[in-house]
Specification:
By secondary structure, this protein is mainly α. Helix content is 73%, strand content 0%.
Length: 229
Amino acid sequence: MQKETKKRLDIDLWIIFLVTIGVYAIYFICGSNIMSFCKDSSISVWPRLMAAAGMEFGIAGLGITIVCLLRKEKFTTFGLKSKNALKAVLLTVICFLPYVISVFLSGEFEGYEPLSIMVTEDLHKTGILASIVGTLIIAVVWGFFEGFNYVVICDKISKRYPTDKTWLDWGALVCAVMGILFHPINTSFWGLVELVTTFIALYGMLITRKKTDNAWGAIFAFLFIWNAI
């Protein structure tokens, strides 16, 4: 790999890292106020939805968007294509099966609610058109960008630190660990099972993207599995 390519990838990863940490810092400082605002049903649902979407996009989307704009890279270059899309989705679902089963066995399953966040109930009360628009915003931010964020970061790390091992991918490994660390860790038996199955789901999802050269599996997972159960 040429030195210039390595330098470019290093800069890309630092931009994503610093932007993400910066938004997390804002959330750490103002998180309780933001959450209280978003949950306050006496306030119009739209500013609450946009506040929540802004924070979510800042954490999972802003960094990769800045990098893609800077490098003039189209999102489609990261596997957003029709070829192997169904295969990618099916293999990703298989990777998430241990996680889904563990949720049921642990008794933590409270219902299947895709595209549902803290303001969804109030959003549905605003009318059909507003509900559709709001749901599309949720799908884009909590579904598309959350899943695609993993794909782009994984791709950047894998190109910077390539490996010739069939099932080892540094990008997938880092992203899977990152996905675990950015969520509360429970050291109970079922908590540890959740850690293992979450790792299998995320790592498998990203290996699937690599093997199929298709990113729709990751996006499907965040739309209809990860944020729905």
